[in-house]
Write a structure and sequence with these properties.
171 residues; mainly alpha; 5 helices; elongated
Amino acid sequence: MVQKKKELYHEGLEEYPRATVFIENLLFVLWLGVGAFLCWTFLPLIAWIYLGFGVTMMLFVMRIAVCKNCYYHNKRCHTGWGKLSALYCRHGEITNFCRGVAGALIPAFYGSIALVPMVLGVIAMVKQFSVVKLSAFIVFLFIITMSSVILRKKSCDTCKMKLICPGSATK
């Protein structure tokens, strides 16, 4: 069977507005911050490990593994991380986007930074309930929904990589 060649979405944005980048990064900071708080309610050491893992993966590992092969490398994508990845590595090949380890890394990373705080937060609430823990849990769910569903769909709609990206929310 002949595979259809995947192409860039030519109507996509060349660069995203700074406001989009600001909002998405603010949500990521809140995601990690509230997630760390939920981990803290279970065991403070786990909160520090979570933060270290999240920041290292988000700022360095994911940028090198994923962004180097993206059209937006050295450009302002919806998160601005294309510019960040250009500081660490040279532009790769778009045809290698999300192939190999990078393809498995993305869902594993985002799944872990979402699920670990939720599970630990629930355990901490079962052990000793508090309105603060419950409120943090609800805020965390809101942040994840905004970032992973609502804004992701909006960003994917105007992304030049949406026809290539296996994680595009427009498929």
